[in-house]
């Protein structure tokens, strides 16, 4: 199952353990937070693409999948190598262990889910740590 498919099957509630694939960026003032609360998919996609650039290289460029998953209070974006998106050949894939990028609508937080624990657990942890509900 791809990270995008796995993200689609999870319910939204959490955050991964801090680590090399987890970064948070937050809105700095109340007007920016209000704007982000009304964030649409193209705005979230731009944040996710910017985040992914930090992991990409000229030798192995990375790209977001064309579709995303809207979890009411966040979006998730699957990603892989640009080559894999063009060929769908598994030898061009990043392989297991990479999760989708999460963009929280209300705060602008951007981070990457890891392959374990489950996406649901990671999302629930994030929601609990930030005292928010990510699902309706």
Spell out the key features of this protein.
136 residues; four-stranded antiparallel sheet; alpha+beta; 21% strand
Order of helices and strands: HHHEEHEEH
β-strand number: 4
* Strands in their spatial order, largest beta sheet: 1-2-3-4
Instruction: Give the N-to-C terminal Cα separation.
Output: 26 Å
Cα-atom radius of gyration: 14 Å
What's the shape? globular
Mean pLDDT: 77
Structural domain tally = 1
How many helices? 5
Taken as a percent bin, the fraction of beta residues is 15-25%
Largest sheet composition: 4 strands, antiparallel
Low-confidence regions? 1-31
Helices and strands: which structural class? alpha+beta
Q: Helix proportion of residues, in percent?
A: 25-40%
Can you characterise this structure?
This protein is of the alpha+beta class. The chain has one domain (3-126). 33% of the residues lie in helices and 21% in strands. It contains 5 helices and 4 strands; from the N terminus they run αααββαββα. A 4-stranded antiparallel β-sheet has the order 1-2-3-4, sandwiched between helices. Strand 1 and strand 2 (74-81) form a beta hairpin. The protein is globular, with a radius of gyration of 14 Å. Mean pLDDT is 77; it is low at 1-31.
What would a concise description of this structure say?
The chain contains five helices and four strands, in the order αααββαββα. The protein is of the alpha+beta class.
């Amino acid at each position: 199952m791809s990270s995008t498919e796995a993200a689609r099957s999870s319910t939204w509630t959490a955050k991964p353990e801090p680590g090399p694939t987890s970064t948070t960026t937050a809105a700095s003032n109340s007007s920016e937070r209000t704007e982000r609360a009304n964030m649409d998919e193209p705005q979230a996609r731009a944040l996710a693409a910017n985040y992914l650039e930090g992991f990409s290289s000229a030798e192995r460029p990375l790209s977001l999948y064309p579709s995303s998953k809207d979890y009411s209070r966040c979006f998730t974006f699957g990603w892989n190598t640009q080559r894999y998106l063009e060929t769908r050949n598994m030898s061009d894939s990043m392989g297991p262990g990479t999760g989708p990028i999460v963009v929280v609508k209300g705060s602008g937080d951007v981070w990457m889910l890891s392959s374990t624990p489950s996406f649901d657990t990671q999302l629930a942890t994030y929601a609990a740590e930030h005292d928010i509900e990510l699902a309706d």
